[in-house]
Design goal:
Number of strands: 17
Distance between the termini: 11 Å
Oligomer: single chain
Largest sheet: 5 strands, antiparallel
Radius of gyration: 20 Å
Shape: globular
């Protein structure tokens, strides 16, 4: 049985991600410098920080040599027992014909200090990859601040939360809270962009932090009161009970959510309105959440035309890779973006 009381310490305090376009070596250096600063903040040893730098170097060099439209996304995560940094490398290039062969040591990326994809895997405490011929590749790497990797609790949370290119603060926010054997996941999208949008959606996130055991309808009611006087936000909350394998959902505005189980997908309905401004009806919807299910939530920075079944084997990859593929292929360039993928096995 999983120790669900440990989920909160495992998954909370997730800092904002940063994204780096990778087309030349100087851009790899910028990502490496940013990661070095994050590793110092999170208490990485010199050895762990060195491994992280090599992971970024290898991933970035691979993007330059072989990819099209390559990006690195870096996310620091801090929890009660330690910390880690996630690195996602993604591209829209030709893909890799034989991924398993390319991951074997000895298949080198030209002019790199390690051994290419094999080094990325070997130097990471957690690693996963997904590639499709003609559609590109996504790699997920995690380096922890402690020598012992974080114990697997049977849960994975993949997250992409990035502002529009013209802003530093993201008007989209997300939060997670745990109560007993249940978990609540909230996504907010402040109207517009920039600091005012961030302020509005962040106030809703604080409501969840202050009321971790409250049901979704009650959380939206409190958020509606807390956001009065702001520009308002779209808000959606999913409450997952892992013992009962059920999910409760309520949303206001244009946050999309669905449960993917096998090849079937059930959409979760949000009502029209603006939390903090105009909420006419709040309604809770119940759904089953069996083992091996995915909960996918995203703001309207992601188009709704995606179909995960068109990506063979993607549901079996790490949640962070699923989130990254949806971001890569369906993001809208003129909006903040949040996409969350929660997997329970």
């Amino acid at each position: 049985m999983h120790h669900y009381h440990e989920m909160e310490s495992l998954l909370t305090q997730c800092y904002m991600q940063s994204i780096y376009s990778i087309a030349e070596p100087s851009q790899i250096a910028a990502a490496r410098r940013a990661a070095a600063e994050l590793s110092r903040r999170l208490g990485f040893s010199d050895v762990q920080a060195g491994r992280l730098a090599l992971v970024i170097t290898e991933a970035g060099t691979n993007l330059i040599k072989h990819a099209v439209d390559g990006f690195l996304i870096i996310r620091p995560v801090e929890h009660a027992a330690g910390a880690w940094i996630e690195v996602i490398a993604m591209d829209s290039g030709p893909g890799i014909a034989n991924l398993n062969a390319s991951l074997h040591d000895g298949v080198s990326t030209a002019n790199s200090p390690g051994t290419g994809l094999g080094a990325m895997q070997r130097l990471s405490d957690a690693f996963d990859a997904y590639t499709e011929p003609g559609k590109g590749s996504v790699f997920f790497m995690q380096v922890t601040a402690t020598a012992q990797a974080v114990r697997d609790l049977g849960l994975q949370l993949g997250a992409i939360c990035l502002p529009i290119a013209s802003e530093e603060l993201c008007g989209d926010t997300w939060n997670l809270a745990c109560s007993g054997h249940a978990l609540s996941l909230m996504v907010g999208d402040g109207l517009g962009h920039g600091p005012d949008a961030y302020q509005a959606s962040s106030l809703a996130m604080q409501v969840l932090t202050d009321n971790p055991s409250l049901h979704p309808v009650g959380l939206i009611e409190l958020s509606h009161a807390a956001l009065r006087g702001t520009r308002g936000a779209a808000v959606a909350i999913a409450h997952v009970d892992f013992h009962r394998r059920t999910l409760q959902f309520a949303g206001i505005g244009n946050i999309a959510a669905c449960v993917q189980t096998g090849d079937s997908r059930r959409h979760l309905l949000s009502h029209n309105g603006i939390v903090g401004n105009n909420v006419r009806k709040i309604q809770q919807f119940d759904a089953e959440f069996p083992s091996e299910s995915l909960l996918i939530m995203h703001s309207d920075g992601i188009g709704t035309q995606w179909d995960i079944n068109r990506y063979p084997g993607l549901v079996n990859r790490h949640s962070a890779i699923i989130a990254a593929v949806l971001y890569r292929d369906f993001r809208r360039e003129r909006d903040d973006v949040t996409v969350l993928v929660l997997k329970h096995s």
